[in-house]
From TrEMBL:
This is Replication-associated recombination protein A. One of its GO terms (biological process) is DNA synthesis involved in DNA repair. It comes from the Bacteria. InterPro entries: AAA+_ATPase (IPR003593), AAA_assoc_2 (IPR032423), AAA_ATPase_RarA/MGS1/WRNIP1 (IPR051314), ATPase_AAA_core (IPR003959), DNA_pol3_clamp-load_cplx_C (IPR008921), MgsA_C (IPR021886), P-loop_NTPase (IPR027417). DNA-dependent ATPase that plays important roles in cellular responses to stalled DNA replication processes. Keywords: ATP-binding, DNA replication, Nucleotide-binding. Residues 1-26 are annotated as: Disordered.
Amino acid sequence: MSQQNSLFGAEEAPAPPSGGVSAPAAVISSPSPAAAPLGMPLAERLRPAHWQDVIGQRHLLGPGKPLRLALERGRPHSMILWGPPGVGKTTLARLVAQTVRADFIVLSAVLAGVKEIREAVQRAQVSQQAGRATLVFVDEVHRFNKSQQDAFLPHVESGLFVFIGATTENPAFEVNSALLSRATVHVLRGLEAEDLQQLVARACQALGQPAWPEEAVARLVDHADGDARRLLNAVERVAEVAEASGQPLSGVLVDQVLGDRLRRFDKGGDQFYDLISALHKSIRGSDPDASLYWLARMLDGGADPLYLARRLVRIASEDIGNADPRALPLCLAAAQTQERLGSPEGELALAQAVAYLAVAPKSNAVYLAWKAAQAMVKAAGTAPVPDHLRNAPTGLARQLGHGQGYRYPHDEPDGFAPGVSYWPDGMSSASLYQPVDRGLELRIREKLDRLRELDVAWRDRS
């Protein structure tokens, strides 16, 4: 039997028949730890053989939960499994196929194309003719382009196979709407500490070792950051070092073997944007402590400090605005400091800016006014500039009336020319900028109210 490692995973599959169509894959089951082949990674050896053995994901597999009901009834549905790495997406797909005794076809969206999708469809058709169900699992489905994703649609609709896609990216953005409408999205979560502790206990049993010290387990759980595969790989490395060196298992040994913990951080992915959203909303919510925490999380995870500096400049205009105009130059100075000093020295300036933005008075009045002005321009089209506002640099321009009737505000009392319209002819004026009653905008609002009163008084006299 030939091994198919690149496209359909590492399962054994019969040689293709004369028509070039591969025969159906065998039903997948995971080996028990004791029966595992020599050299198989611990994470693979401990892959659950039954869905009841899955650790975590109780919101999907607990009593009465949707995925469990589908498994218990033997009626799986097409689905998208969305979650971070190491939370069991591939395992669940295998267990669904095993529970309903379906032929299991694995496609990697990194390696496969339309040709391989077509081959998978042919295999499913052969299985259907033989009275067997087929489950097609696509790992990293978000990496398929639209035409590749569309190739599944008619077969999912006809029921030729059950489709399961796994992704670490938000399927609302990365999976096309037609395929998404035919599949249920199940969100998988990072494993909790108690789940990871249970997994360590299983690993110790599989390795034939007594329970590890609590301190060592706590360090492993902290290192794993919710990722079961990372945890089991770490357990295996620590166990190998302990055996080779004769050192006792301890938290110190775990630290020596694993080094600095790298927290889960998907630069440019969903988690990245969730973190920047948390930072922005904490600043907007005037919580300096939470704001500094999220800044530290992003820098610790490897975010570009200059990207964060640019976001702070944006926040200064969007959420503070003229309530505290000092916020914008402060953020620009922090960005310049980061650019000149680099990390870690420049990061303190970013922290200073974050704390200042969080405690500054908040106003989105400029942001709302700008959006309203943009909407007006799109709706009104290209209105001509009134003659009194036009430039008049030449005699011809002045003969045409450009600048005629313009009142120079510096020649007016209080530096303001009441009654003058600065809008296109025929367009009603609009109060786009509405300062709030906070910070400097409180005084700005008072001044605008006074200027508007002068306008009204001028018109009443005219």
